[in-house]
């Protein structure tokens, strides 16, 4: 690994701020957007009570609702990534794939998207055009149509070039029931491929880091992979795309919602060498680094081989691996068995190791 801007001091680590300050602060901090403990507290203590009605049993990235006899998945997401363009993708790709993948985690085939653009006064029209072109190309690749939208402009200095919001709807096939409450001890835990790639790609662009092999974001639509897994006829219990907070956040969310424990074999988790090197240098844990084209699946143990084969037969699941299992011990907790034979607790992240990654 090498840098193009000189010695490591060029990273200016002293200027970095912690994204997870004390929780009794009266103001919003970066950690509230990280998908971890602070995000959960903001929702549970401020947002959900204000909306009224009972809180959902488990907060997921898409809701499954019934309308005139059809089961629909509905999701919305906002994207504030910095920089707008990065190795392997852009904010336009993220805006489409992020929402498509949230729908896919409910087993839905995404059908329609909306798109809201929030533009900062002074941003170059060419930049907006590049974002729009990337968004359109990603939608075509994912097989969805953008059918409605909105555009707003904020004053110079009150934005960051381009923010995007997308919402999507899709149809959940009959018989598909993916939710953490179906997880039981004995389930196998699978991931679809190498983790931490997106977060390191963003970091390398921000800090001008260079590696022997360029690290590109894994940003991709996962609908086709999920369809292949469902077609295997196996008993899938829950799916999750480990974006903000990484694999650790997704595993903790599922463990808490299911009331089961999760044991991960640390050496079985696929971490590419450039990601491992970058994380070691910066003191990060790959388990907490964001992904944008990977999923984690909990499946009945007797069906794990069939699901793994279906995943590996798909281009976006060729690196799939079984990384752990569900246990009755330590309910709601995730632990990792290390290569040295010990164990460590994999906590829910407080905030986010690297803000503004999606």
Automatic annotation (TrEMBL):
Tree of life domain: Bacteria
Annotated PurM-like N-terminal domain residues: 61-172
Pfam family membership, one: AIRS_C
Record-annotated PurM-like C-terminal domain positions: 185-330
InterPro entries referenced in this protein's UniProt entry, alphabetically: HypE, PurM-like_C_dom, PurM-like_C_sf, PurM-like_N, PurM-like_N_sf
SUPFAM superfamilies, per database record: PurM C-terminal domain-like (SSF56042), PurM N-terminal domain-like (SSF55326)
Recorded family membership: Belongs to the HypE family.
Name the record gives this protein: Hydrogenase expression/formation protein HypE
Native source species: Streptomyces viridosporus T7A
């Amino acid at each position: 690994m090498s840098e193009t801007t000189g010695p490591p001091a060029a990273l200016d680590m002293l200027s970095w701020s912690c994204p997870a300050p004390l929780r009794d602060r009266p103001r919003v901090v970066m950690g509230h957007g990280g998908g971890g403990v602070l995000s959960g507290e903001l929702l549970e203590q401020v947002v959900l009570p204000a909306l009224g009605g009972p809180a959902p049993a488990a907060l997921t990235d898409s809701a499954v609702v019934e309308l005139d006899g059809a089961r629909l998945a509905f999701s919305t997401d906002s994207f504030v990534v910095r920089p707008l363009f990065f190795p392997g993708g852009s904010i336009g790709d993220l805006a489409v794939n992020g929402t498509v993948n949230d729908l896919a985690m409910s087993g839905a085939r995404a059908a329609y998207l909306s798109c809201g653009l929030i533009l900062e006064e002074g941003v170059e029209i060419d930049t907006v055009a590049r974002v729009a072109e990337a968004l359109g190309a990603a939608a075509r690749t994912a097989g969805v149509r953008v059918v409605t939208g909105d555009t707003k402009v904020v004053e110079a200095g009150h934005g960051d070039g381009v923010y995007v919001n997308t919402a999507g709807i899709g149809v959940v096939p009959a018989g598909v029931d993916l939710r953490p409450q179906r997880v039981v001890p004995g389930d196998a835990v699978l991931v679809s491929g190498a983790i931490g790639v997106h977060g390191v790609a963003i970091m390398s662009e921000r800090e001008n880091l260079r590696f022997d092999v360029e690290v590109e974001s894994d940003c991709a639509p996962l609908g086709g992979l999920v369809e292949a897994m469902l077609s295997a006829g196996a008993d899938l219990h829950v799916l999750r795309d480990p974006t903000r907070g990484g694999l650790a956040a997704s595993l903790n969310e599922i463990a808490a919602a299911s009331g089961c424990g999760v044991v991960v074999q640390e050496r079985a988790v696929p971490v590419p060498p450039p990601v491992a090197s970058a994380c070691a240098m910066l003191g990060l844990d790959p388990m907490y680094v964001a992904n944008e084209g990977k999923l984690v699946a909990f499946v009945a143990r007797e069906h794990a081989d069939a699901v793994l084969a279906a995943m590996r037969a798909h281009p976006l699941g060729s690196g799939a691996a079984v990384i752990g299992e569900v246990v009755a011990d330590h309910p709601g907790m995730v632990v990792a068995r290390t290569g040295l034979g010990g164990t460590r607790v994999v906590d829910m992240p407080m905030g986010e190791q690297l803000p503004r990654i999606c």
